[in-house]
Amino acid sequence: MNTTASDVRCEAWVKSSYSNGNGGNCLEWAPALAAASGAVPVRDSKSLSAGVLVFPAGSWDVFVTAAARGRFSRIVSVAA
């Protein structure tokens, strides 16, 4: 299945369990579309007009596993 912009707009979005109500990191994804297509749509719930990033499911799994293992703990934010 090819993922289109209209597919992503129609999906139910789920907020990350790490998001909070204090304006923190608010990542959402559409699990039903991910299961059906093998493509994982991700968006920033604080900026819906910014668009959606879509990742191959295998790549997303590698990223989430690395994050859970602390592989990115040494990355430093750089002010723009």
Short structural summary:
This protein is an alpha+beta fold. The protein contains 3 helices and 4 strands, in the order H-E-E-H-E-E-H.
Walkthrough of the structure:
The chain has helices at 5-10, 31-37, 57-68, and strands at 14-15, 27-29, 39-44, 53-56. With 80 residues, the chain is an alpha+beta fold. Strands 1-2-3-4 form a 4-stranded antiparallel β-sheet. The longest helix has 12 residues, at 57-68. The protein is globular and about 35 Å long.
Structural class: alpha+beta
Strand line-up in the sheet with most strands: 1-2-3-4
Report the sheet-strand fraction.
15-25%
Largest sheet: 4 strands, antiparallel
Helix content: 25-40%
- The count of DSSP E runs of length 2 or more, i.e. the number of strands, is 4
Radius of gyration: 14 Å
- CA-CA gap between termini: 37 Å
Helix and strand sequence: HEEHEEH
* Average of the residue pLDDT scores: 78
Low-confidence stretches: none
Number of helices, counting only DSSP H or I runs of 4 residues or more: 3
Shape: globular
